[in-house]
Amino acid sequence: MSTLTYVEFLLAFLGVPVAALAVAVARKTDDHRRVLAGVAALVCIAVTYTAPWDSYLVGRGVWTYGEGVVAARFARVPLGEWLFFVLQTVTTGLWYHLLAPRVDPGVPGRDAPGRSDARTVGAVAWLALAAVGAVLTATATRTYYLGMILVWAGPVVAFLWAVGGPVVWRYRRLVAAAVAVPSAYLWAADRFAIGTGLWTISPDYSTGLHVAGLPVEEAIFFALTNLLVVQGLLLFDWVTARAAERGTAHAVAGLVPPSVASLAGSLSARVPGVAEVRRRWQ
């Protein structure tokens, strides 16, 4: 039996870092609204996308909780785990903002010719990884958890590369640093939680491989979730920087292929009233 409850663990291991990072970021930046908007948006996305997946795996028995750890549940997910979704996203998001410079809106986006390679290669690679995950999920019980992680995260990372691959590549060192530190910290926290019996990863659904005492599935999970947060915030900052420079239409145009944007512009120009709306929009 663990000596800590889920909520006590979160307050100790994530509550304190969040408070410290919030103070540091508030002192560093004068654009608090942008930081708050980006992190809040990512929190909403993270909770909405993760909760159904998490609920399914909890119901399947991929991991279980120690006696006395969970006080209440919603949709099979412990309330502490809902809070974990929020606090991890906030922690990683604030760490990213502590490191990040002002994102250059001139970094090539979809509207820049000759820069589609990063998008294509990144998107295809992550979709291939998701396909590998599907195979792992379907072919063996012991690789089920690992496969489910890849199936869940791969398509989203592929989408982020499809819309902003050149930006991610341009800021790859920032992405690496913003992902590495929170991941290492969460690996240590997760190792402590497993070691003290807060939760247990089922040996039936995991490979049994460990990295420094941590199940490899957990290490990959935290690395990928932090990658999703960091890339999402980077592209949020890029879009808002483009919007501030030349308007919302310019920001949105960077997220679609030039051929699609050109076709849409041609068609909209022929629709009565659309040209006037576009003029006012810009």
TrEMBL record:
- Topologically, how does it sit relative to the membrane? Multi-pass membrane protein
Q: In terms of one coarse class, where is the protein primarily found?
A: membrane
Write out the entry's keywords from A to Z: Carotenoid biosynthesis, Isomerase, Membrane, Transmembrane, Transmembrane helix
Ranges that cross the membrane: 6-26, 35-53, 82-99, 120-138, 144-163, 175-199, 219-239
In what pathway does it function? Carotenoid biosynthesis
Any one GO CC term of the record: membrane
Asked if the keyword Transmembrane helix belongs to this entry, the reply reads yes
Annotated compartments? Membrane
Q: Name one GO biological process term.
A: carotenoid biosynthetic process
Q: Which NCBIfam families match?
A: CarR_dom_SF (TIGR03462)
Protein name (Swiss-Prot/TrEMBL): Lycopene cyclase domain-containing protein
What organism does the UniProt record list as the source? Halorussus limi
